[in-house]
Specification:
With 119 residues, this protein is mainly β. It contains no helices and eleven strands. The relative contact order is 0.32.
Length: 119
């Protein structure tokens, strides 16, 4: 079992920046990747950025060049630096941990953190 907790959301003006943090706990040795997703009101949850142990970061086209996903060289912590924020970035941001344990994969989600960008 892995528990995932996000932090760092808030209200910011258009063009501003926010930094989200995500920490996984529990069976952290099973984590092989982490990522950020978001869900705006009335829309489906979508990928924002992911990073894995063996692969580099991957970004959605809509955030490429504005957002940066990173780790602190541990497998259970991931950050999302969001710059040049736009009103359309407003959403609940979720962190997901990808795990592999005893040959089975399983994803664990956090509760989400609200990001609101005012125009």
């Amino acid at each position: 079992q892995v528990q995932v907790v996000e932090s760092g959301g808030g209200l910011v003006h258009s063009g501003g920046s926010l930094r989200l943090s995500c920490v996984g706990s529990g069976n952290i040795n099973s984590i092989y990747g982490m990522g950020w997703y978001r869900q705006a009101t009335g829309k489906q949850r979508e990928l924002v950025a992911t990073i894995t142990e063996i692969g580099g970061p991957h970004y959605a086209t809509s955030v490429q060049g504005r957002f940066t996903i990173s780790t602190n060289n541990t497998k259970n912590t991931v950050f999302l630096q969001m710059d040049s924020l736009k009103p359309e970035d407003t959403a609940v941001y979720y962190c997901k941990a990808n795990t592999l344990h005893q040959g089975r994969t399983r994803d664990y989600w956090g509760q989400g953190t609200q990001v609101t960008v005012s125009s």
